[in-house]
Design goal:
The complex is a heterodimer of chains A (302) and B (232). Chain A is α+β, with helices and mostly antiparallel strands and 302 residues long. Chain A is built from 7 helices and 16 strands. Chain A has 2 domains: 213 residues, Glutamine Phosphoribosylpyrophosphate, subunit 1, domain 1; 71 residues, Alpha-Beta Plaits (2-Layer Sandwich). In chain A, a hairpin with a 2-residue loop joins strand 9 and strand 10. In chain B, strands 1-2-3-4-5-6-7-8-9-11-10 form an 11-stranded mixed beta sheet. The chains are: A alpha+beta (302), B alpha/beta (232).
């Protein structure tokens, strides 16, 4: 099954409540995906440097100590979120410089997301604990993308939890299963794309990373995905300014969208949208198969 | 549980829970009326009704709303998710807004009326029920539909009527393309008559039967044929 929840604020009032609203959406979808949960929030963009979302595959990391070591080598680094196994660091340098430093100086720590705005949280289990422990309800954000996973194609691990990063300020959540992910993973590895798991959705993310790296726009990358990805999918892709939604041409996996003057939402089921403010008067529709829908703050008059 | 509320026919789904709401309606005698509040996209609202009661859902419903309906009239004032009126046997289900996939799937009887668009696979494996959609229908609608009628006032998506048996399809707008063994057929007086009768039952006026085209089975897939051996 899996559950997808995406929320895009059109007003400052919704931005201020976005953490709480998307947390409630994810809790409604917990039954669709009790194995693991993940959430990308786009908030408080940094003007210099980048935010890094980090995940440690072993028990616990002294994140503050790590940030001091980084700061000594590559310039300012500060822990802005510390949740034990995962943390979010703000660095003054480029994300790539920090990424390289991490690959040379630490083991067992993966960069699961990076960019000016994106903050990624992921955890094994139902979403309630993650949402509470990470204090998601108190956070404002311009938009967010959540996922509740029911594992079918690979093991239940924190690394295998969605969203998957596909580039700077980009991430992907997926409901469905891909049937050509093994062959595609090998092809992408030859192109220099690396993978942390055996997960099929990570291959979709890697595919988009590769296309975007080669200069494609997000729409172009998604158009190509329709040709190259075999299987079932409802994808939601978080971008710096908004998100995009794509369903496979057969459209076996559910998706419902809704829009009001205050927000745009995507979810696997309407019940996740029902408690949003003004939902009963929202425009509600099922996105068409093989059609790219996208929303961007850049395009919305405020 | 608030007995007075139920007696007055108002069922608050948030307060009573789905099981109790459905149980009250499933055991109600013909002639009673119910209004469901706080539907909030819950699944299986008004599923399995068995008598000629009237149900109004004041909001959006989730999956399988009014599934397996017999005799009841169910009105949904919002949109519905996957499988509204699935396997309906009789009665009438009306959705004011849009419907998700597989609306009226396998319905044996009764009338399903969708006020907006219906998504993919509308009327899949229809077995004798009637479906009238004011808007458009998505891909693979009326797939393997065996009997009954599907009327679409808007357009039909790709693969309409693929592998269809004897269901009759009437589309007013354009058809992206027809599925295997589905062809356009002549509109005879008997078809025009049944279409007028269906539109009347659906409460649709100002739309003439002559505006529609009829589609149905070419019947070439009915029997084993040596030419098809080895075809995948």
């Amino acid at each position: 099954m899996c559950g997808i929840a995406g929320l895009f604020a059109k007003t400052v009032e919704i931005e201020q409540q976005l953490g709480r609203l998307i947390a409630e959406m994810m809790e409604q979808l917990a039954d669709r995906g009790p194995d693991s949960a993940g959430l990308a929030l786009y908030r408080e963009p940094v003007s210099i440097g980048a935010k890094l979302s980090l995940l440690c595959s072993t028990d616990h990391v002294e994140w503050t100590e790590l940030s001091r070591r980084m700061a000594a080598d590559i310039g300012d680094a500060e822990v802005i979120v510390d949740h034990g196994q995962h943390a979010i660091l703000r660095v003054a340098t480029d994300a790539d410089v920090a990424r390289t430093w991490l690959s040379e100086h630490v083991v067992d720590i993966a960069v699961v997301g990076s960019g000016q705005s994106i903050e990624l949280h992921k955890r094994v289990g139902r979403p309630e604990a993650m949402l509470a422990d990470c204090g998601i309800r108190n956070l404002g954000a311009t938009h967010g993308l959540g996922h509740t996973r029911m594992a079918t194609e690979s093991r239940v691990t924190t690394a295998g939890s969605h969203p998957f990063s596909t580039g700077e300020d980009l991430c992907l959540v997926h409901n469905g299963s891909l049937s050509n992910h093994n062959r595609l993973r090998r092809e992408l590895q030859r192109e220099g794309v690396s993978f942390a798991t055996e997960n099929d959705s990570e291959v979709a993310a890697g595919y988009l990373t590769w296309k975007l790296r080669d200069g494609a726009t997000l729409d172009q990358a998604l158009e190509s995905a329709l040709e190259d990805l075999d299987g079932f999918y409802t994808f939601a892709v978080g971008t710096r300014d908004g998100f995009a939604v794509l369903r496979d041409p057969i459209a076996c996996k559910p998706a419902v969208m809704a829009e009001t003057d205050g927000w745009v939402a995507i979810a696997s089921e309407y019940r996740a949208i029902a408690q949003l403010p003004g939902a009963s008067d929202a425009e509600v529709w099922e996105p068409e198969p093989a059609r790219i829908y996208s929303w961007s703050h850049a395009a919305v008059p405020q | 549980m608030n007995v007075a509320e139920i007696t007055a026919g108002r069922l608050d789904l948030a307060q009573l829970g789905l099981r109790q709401v459905n149980s009250v309606m499933q055991t109600a005698p013909a002639g009673e009326s119910f209004t469901i509040t706080n539907s909030n996209g819950a699944h299986a609202i008004a599923a399995g009704l068995r008598s000629a009661i009237r149900v109004e859902v004041l909001g959006h419903a989730g999956y399988y709303c009014a599934g397996m309906n017999q005799e009841a009239t169910v009105l949904v004032q919002g949109t519905v998710g996957v499988g509204v009126a699935e396997n309906m046997m009789s009665g009438r289900v009306e959705v004011a807004g849009r419907a998700g996939q597989a609306a009226g799937a396998t319905a044996h009887g009764g009338l399903l009326l969708v006020g907006g668009d219906a998504a993919a696979r509308c009327g899949i494996s229809l077995k004798g029920g009637d479906i009238v959609v004011r808007g458009s229908v998505g891909h693979a609608s009326a797939f393997m539909a065996q009997s009954g009628r599907l009327v679409v006032l808007g357009d039909a998506g790709p693969g309409l009527g693929d592998s269809i048996y004897e269901a009759r399809l009437y589309v007013r707008g354009s058809v992206s393309d027809l599925g295997a063994d589905c062809v356009e057929k002549q509109m005879l007086e008997e078809h025009s008559y049944e279409l007028r009768e269906l539109l009347l039952r659906a409460g649709i006026s100002g739309v003439g039967a002559s505006e529609f085209r009829r589609y149905g089975s070419a019947r070439t897939l009915y029997h084993w044929h040596p030419d098809n051996v080895g075809v995948v």
